[in-house]
Design a protein that fits this description.
Helices cover 72% and strands 7% of the residues. It has 386 residues and is α+β, with helices and mostly antiparallel strands. It has a single domain, classed as Na+/H+ antiporter like fold. It has a 4-stranded antiparallel sheet with strand order 3-6-5-4. A two-stranded antiparallel ribbon has the order 1-2. The relative contact order is 0.19.
Length: 386
């Protein structure tokens, strides 16, 4: 690893601090950047500044992918099966259990047992003021009927939305940084995206206790198109053009080394943006951020180690095991945020919980990438870093 990659943890820490300071010192700039979104049904689905950074993160990865290898990876069903089992049979329910334990019991006294939150009424419900619905009561607020629910339950709803949304974009970065099989990661992203279209609404509705959750398919398709399909198409076109005009030797010896720092630079820029956009939230709610972050962090670690150790017991190659574990640990926070805003409202505790998921995602996943690199000798035929 080069100097830049070796000290990545330090750069991440400095970018987090720099982002928070930027949000405090230039709140107007942060507000302006935060407002640059593509909207679906009134919910911010794609942040344009973040989308630009993600494109710069994804493009170098996509350019390097040999699609003959993707075809071979698609025939290896063991890591794909492991990923599907972790993401859809285990992760949603462990998220529910861990968040319920911490937010509803262990941390309830700190959150406030009597604290309440105002959220939107469920779609299609016409209830009179004073009516009971689940754990909430219908109240009138600023001329609108709202549902008053315990605050911890609102946080729980946001955690659930994160738990049922496995990552379909950033995991390509985590897999690449861990020296995993990029072709396999792309196959798993494609499979997970299709499964999300089928199970997201049903599983979310069941765990939230609201019946069938409205499927934010527009938000999901838009985010996949921008975060995955766009850099994928650009990478394919660029790779073919360079190989045809300059040859493979020039591509590998000159183009790829020039492109190598782009992914990490874009990742660090994304961190600065994320923490500058949400710096005011962090400063205004430091303890709340901490209470929500505890179950989210524990859930991430549990799912990662479960997937990683199962992969080891299955004797998967390291380059297949790392992305299989990382894709389960990370979340598709863009869809989770959009769903929370559409269902519960922009100012709801559920929306805040999904934002906390964004804030802890990058530092935590980078730490897990480092764990993967340090333990690659656990697996047969572990590929050494380039």
């Amino acid at each position: 690893m080069g100097f830049f990659e070796r000290w990545l943890t330090l750069w991440v820490f400095l970018c987090i601090i720099g982002g928070i300071l930027l949000g405090r010192l230039a709140p107007g700039l942060a507000t302006q950047l935060d407002g640059m979104n593509l909207m679906v049904n009134g919910a911010p689905v794609v942040s344009i500044p973040i989308a630009i950074c993600l494109f710069l993160m994804m493009f170098p990865i996509m350019v390097k992918i040999d699609f003959e290898r993707v075809a071979r990876a698609g025939r290896n069903i063991r890591p794909v099966s492991l990923t599907l089992a972790i993401n859809w049979l285990i992760k949603p329910f462990t998220m529910y259990g861990i968040a319920l334990l911490f937010l509803g019991t262990i941390l309830l006294g700190l959150i406030g047992p009597e604290a309440t939150d105002l959220v939107k009424l469920p779609f299609g419900l016409e209830l009179a003021v004073g009516s009971q619905y689940g754990s909430g009561t219908v109240v009138m607020h600023e001329g609108l009927r709202m549902l008053e629910v315990p605050l911890w339950r609102s946080y729980l709803a946001g955690c659930i939305l994160l738990g049922i949304a496995p990552c379909t974009a950033m995991v390509l970065v985590w897999g690449n940084l861990s020296r995993g099989n990029d072709g396999l990661t792309l196959v798993m992203v494609a499979v997970n995206s299709l499964v999300m279209l089928l199970l997201y609404g049903l599983l979310g509705g069941f765990l939230l206790g609201v019946g069938r959750l409205p499927m934010p398919w527009q938000a999901l398709l838009l985010s996949i198109a921008i975060y995955v399909a766009l850099p994928l198409v650009a990478g394919i076109i660029t790779r073919r053009a360079i190989l045809a005009s300059r040859g493979e030797d020039w591509f590998r010896q000159h183009f790829l080394p020039w492109l190598q720092p782009v992914t990490i630079s874009a990742l660090l820029t994304t961190l600065v943006l994320l923490f500058s956009l949400k710096g005011a939230v962090i400063v205004a709610n430091p303890l709340t951020i901490l209470w929500i972050a505890i179950p989210l962090t524990l859930q991430t670690l549990l799912v990662f180690w479960l997937g990683y150790l199962i992969a080891r017991s299955m004797r998967l190659d390291y380059e297949d095991a790392a992305p299989a574990a990382l894709i389960g640990a990370s979340n598709h926070f863009e869809v989770a945020i959009a769903t929370a805003v559409m269902l519960f409202g922009l100012s709801s505790g559920a929306a805040l919980a999904t934002v906390v998921g964004v804030l802890i995602e990058v530092p935590l996943m980078l730490w897990l990438v480092r764990i993967c690199l340090r333990t690659r000798h656990w697996f047969p035929a572990a590929r050494q870093p380039d």
